[in-house]
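testing teh design pipeline on a random one, pls ignore if ur not involved
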């Protein structure tokens, strides 16, 4: 969904006859999130998008469920879909700021991945030899 919004936005920019003023900063939305807040929302969105892409969610009504998953992200972060879209438009119109946000998203996702790997490794180490034998039988 987020990629669709970004793609539509980029197509709109490309379709315009006049060249955009790259120095013009769009007006901030009424409920502008800080870069930190927006980064957290985008981390959640990226996790959802990756989960959907890897088909880790297997539901017959997946298309309907996607909206529910996005609503859960919005609720978790205390925002509405409109606030998300307004902030997405604001940040994607500013190349430097969106680059900072996406760099932060990548750093957080990498950190989360490492934490999961460490947790998985420590769980494997803590597993008793007796239990390992039962799993291998």
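output:
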């Amino acid at each position: 969904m987020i990629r669709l919004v970004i793609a539509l936005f980029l197509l709109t920019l490309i379709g315009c006859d006049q060249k955009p003023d790259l120095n013009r900063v769009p007006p901030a939305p009424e409920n502008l999130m800080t870069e930190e807040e927006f980064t957290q929302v985008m981390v959640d969105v990226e996790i959802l998008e990756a989960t959907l892409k890897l088909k880790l969610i297997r539901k017959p009504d997946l298309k309907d469920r996607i909206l529910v998953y996005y609503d859960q992200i919005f609720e978790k972060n205390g925002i509405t879909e409109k606030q998300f879209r307004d902030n997405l438009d604001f940040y994607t119109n500013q190349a430097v700021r969106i680059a900072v946000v996406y760099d932060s998203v990548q750093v957080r996702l990498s950190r989360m991945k490492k934490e999961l790997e460490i947790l998985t490794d420590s769980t494997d180490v803590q597993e008793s030899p007796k239990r390992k034998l039962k799993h291998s039988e």
